Amino acid sequence: MTKRERVLAALQGKPVDCVPAGFSLHFPKDKNSGEAGVQAHLTFFQETDTDLVKIMNENLVPNQGAIRTPEDWACIGPITRETPFIQKQLEFTKKILDRCDPDAYSLGTLHGITASAIHPIEADYGYDPVRTLLTEHLRANSAPVLDAMKRIADGMCQLAWGYKEAGVDGVYYAALGAETRWFTDEEFDRWIAPLDKLILSEIQKAGCHVFLHICKDGLNMERYRSYGDYCDVVNWGVYEVPYSLEEGKKLFPGKTLMGGLANRSGPLVEGTQEELAAAVAQVVETAGTQGFILGADCTLPTEIPTQRIRWVMEALRAL
């Protein structure tokens, strides 16, 4: 099987010659955009030899004005395919796809509605404070905030179609919002889920597979049960949430699961080659060889040696 054939078989729950795998990390600031960013991706893909090649996305919704009250969200304007940050991400994606392994399965990264909504002002407040601010503003006067979030969601839909035209096979959708320390279940269902599903359904319409990444810890995973109709693959923090692969199979029946390894500790980050190979074998034994893609809870440490990921690939192919 080629790498792409292996991933497609996993997505369909069919037998594979070996379990496919994919990992990603945030590249250093001087290597996450432009030609340096393109080369960093290509080097990472070549040195790790993963089946999936995931193109990172540091082209975020930009700051368009100070936001201190719910009404200030009106500063967020419409986002189209011609909006500079969308154009930059699509051009970046095309350059990488033109030069990376055509045998691999490609993913474009798309930040979900919660992450995309806070990106314009995250630098002004910091991560936890801006999450609190978004929650408080929605509770105080949801109309102008939701109007802005809808414009952002429309822009993410445009990015999804642009990704397809650029040539990616799938879209990696990074979802936030299920952390119980911010929204209640009812608030999540009212404010977040509809916009997430709007974008996810548009990714499907564009003809890309949907890799739903459920990010962060302290989650109520039940909030995502209804997302199963909008995705092909589900990835979450097995160790971070925590929520086991076995539990995930029950929550997302019939869906391909991705993950199995901790991303910031444990064998992948600090074990010997033998310990890592044993961990890989144990994950595969637990998850099975069909309908499964080996990965990590989330992005790996930026400084992790690529040789460690290569060890994972060698262990998988030796099983």
From TrEMBL:
GO BP field: porphyrin-containing compound biosynthetic process
GO molecular function: uroporphyrinogen decarboxylase activity
Residues in Uroporphyrinogen decarboxylase (URO-D) domain copies: 136-318
Family matches, as InterPro entries: Methanogen_methyltrans (IPR052024), UROD/MetE-like_sf (IPR038071), Uroporphyrinogen_deCOase (IPR000257)
Recorded superkingdom: Bacteria
Pfam families assigned to the protein according to its UniProt record, in alphabetical order: URO-D (PF01208)
Gene3D superfamilies: 3.20.20.210
UniProt protein name: Uroporphyrinogen III decarboxylase
Source lineage: Bacteria, Bacillati, Bacillota, Clostridia, Eubacteriales
